[in-house]
Amino acid sequence: MTNSTHPALHNEMQQTLRLAESARLISPPNPGIGCLLSSSDGLILGQGHTQHTGGPHAEIMALRDAAAQGHDVAGATAWVTLEPCSHHGRTGPCCDALIAAGIKKVVASIADPNPLVSGQGFERLRAAGVEVEVGPGAQESRELNIGFFSRMIRKTPWVRMKVAASLDGKTALANGVSQWITSDAARADGHAWRARSCAVLTGIGTVLQDNPRLDVRLVNTPRQPHLVVVDSRLETPLDAHLFIAGRALYIYAAVQNDAKKAALEARGATVIYLPGAGGKVDLQAMLQDLARREINELHVEAGHKLNGSLIQAGLVDEFLVYLAPKLIGDGAGMAKLGPITELSKALELEFRATDRLGPDLRIVARVRGRDLF
Fold first, then answer.
1. Which residues are catalytically annotated?
2. What is the distance between the alpha carbons of residues 283 and 209, in angstroms, rounded to a whole number?
3. Which long-range contacts (CB under 8 A, 24 or more apart) does 9-12 make?
4. How far is 149 from 142, CA to CA, in rounded Å?
5. Residues 92-140: pLDDT tens digits?
6. How far apart are CA 311 and CA 262, in angstroms?
7. 360 pairs with which residues across the strands?
8. Per-residue model confidence as pLDDT tens digits over 275-302
């Protein structure tokens, strides 16, 4: 994944955005935030980024870093990629800590979309006589935390669908074999995208056919994302590889089976009944429920049937596609979609990035206009 900083930004904000990016794997469900403290003559006094859930925020880490180096931060400028929080959550208000430290100016990229903050941090800083500037790095900061913004504003996670396919768009052979179409480099990169998500989603078809773990193994990670399974009739085997200690497993079902529910929950899963049309899970309601469970980015690795259902319901925001330089012919496609009769009805996407990974091509494509919230 490429660096998100912009060359036109102040050096201090570029460095602060890099700090925020380094927090992305450890901070969820909190946003990844960076903070840098600088003196009037440009000396860096302290820096830090958001820690794990319940741990210190970026501003506190920067203040601690400055103190450890013996720097007095009175009169300093704090560069931060998101509005300092103003409420008591898992930690205390960061704006109060900056005020108490004697910070003279705060340069923040963007306001916090959390309704508990949403400008109140800026107001408290200004009321205490702190100069506040908002805007530098706003686009980059928002992009780093697109899932958090989605959850706060839309009340649903940012849904990214990962697909590994041949150049002719096949994700498996006609006999169902899919391991491995893409290269080691593409698979490792896919694990890096898993690692940045709050949860990985799959369907019961994938569970029954592949018995996957769907954890992060090919890259280092400080935490494992949660797992979500769409399992309308509660067919998940009790000995499936999905059950991993310390990782939440949410199974969404449509058909009530309380005995199986109890057995799955005895294994550590959480089973949620959300029946929709046709005996299937209500996928929109599932996303809303996942947002309430603090899921920011939802990483989909499913079969073509569930992929098609998510796309047709308009629930996918972004596609992460790995294309191998192979032609397979008959086989499973990326998604099971019904035919359209006019090209004007095709789902419009925007290519956001294209990169070579070993022999393969990685494409990041976003549904046109989907990020305008």
1. 59
2. 22
3. 9/136, 9/137, 9/140, 10/79, 10/107, 10/136, 12/36, 12/38, 12/44, 12/77, 12/79, 12/107
4. 7
5. 789 999 999 999 999 999 999 998 888 899 999 999 999 999 999 999 9
6. 32
7. 357
8. 999 999 999 999 999 999 999 999 999 9
